[in-house]
Amino acid sequence: MYAIRDLSPRGYSFLVFNIVAPILVCLAVFLRVWTRLYISKSFGTDDILLLVSTAMYVGTSITGIGISLHGFGSHQDTISPDNLSTQFKYMYIDGILCYLCIIALRFSLCWLFLRFTQVLWQRRVLYSVAIISTIINVFNLFRMNMFYCVPIPYYWEAYAYNNSITGVCVSPAAMSIALYIQYGISVVADWVTCLLPLLLVKDSLMDTKVKILTWCLLGMGIFASGAGIATIIFAPTYMDVDDFTHTAYGLFVAQTTEPFIGILAASFSTYYPLFKSLWATFIGDPGIKMRDLNTIKTIEGLQDSKTESV
Q1: Considering the entire predicted model, what is its pTM?
Q2: Which helix (H) or strand (E) holds 56?
């Protein structure tokens, strides 16, 4: 294992990110859970799924720290076989946790937005997004991660001293194609799950300021698509098997950033009752009833006709 002072700049930055990011995520989720339990009193399935996603994300951060401390970011030919083998063990576990995190997060977001959406075709779209993205992620979880190499230990033992294991792995080209498909669907899913509920708010009778606030809260998940696009850009680094620990830095950062932004966005979108409560406590009644923005039936001024099924 490397001492922190011996880490490459890429390894050090990846280490710092994996220390800071889970702290911010846990704080954001704590505020969401507090809001849903004690202020809006609307704790539900989407919150449970987000807690599962958060637990998986903390796990990926722990494995990310392990990856960093064993030479990640350095050129592969400068890392000892023992450190390489250990680093790839952490990468193997990290990939499993990352996929589980994304699956739980996608279900949580879809469940959250289903609270807004009463129109039948929009609900069907959300269900479709959840199912399709889950199928892709589950396939990649098993084929492109858990069984990336056969036998499984060959994934990391290929870099160890006195390796006596022979095996075969998925080709880098096939892995790149799988990433293109996975994150292409993920980007589309981010936009669909965030933009659909805004259609109902657009034609409502809410005050303009409240409507803009609602748009901002609901649309924050779109920013997660930026990390997905970055992952697509960095996907070709899987082709560089001879210096993977160095060239895959951008890919790992992008893959780690997507659930980070997604969990923050999912948490921020539920803070409206908390903000209103704090405002009323420290400044006074703002003149607008505190409502939970996570259910379409409680949004002030929303037209009933917009919730009819089509």
Answers
A1: 0.83
A2: helix 45-68
d(Cα 121, Cα 77) in Å, to the nearest integer? 54
pLDDT of residue 97: 95
Q: Identify whether the C-beta of residue 179 lies closer than 8 Å to the C-beta of residue 231.
A: yes
pLDDT in tens, 163-207: 677 888 888 788 888 888 888 888 888 787 777 767 766 655 556
273, 40 Cβ separation under 8 angstroms: yes
Helices 172-202 & 208-219 angle (0-180, nearest 10): 170
Domain count, the chain: 1
- Coil vs helix vs strand at 72: coil
Which residue segment(s) compose the domain that 179 sits in?
A: 4-307
| CATH number, position 56 | 1.20.1070
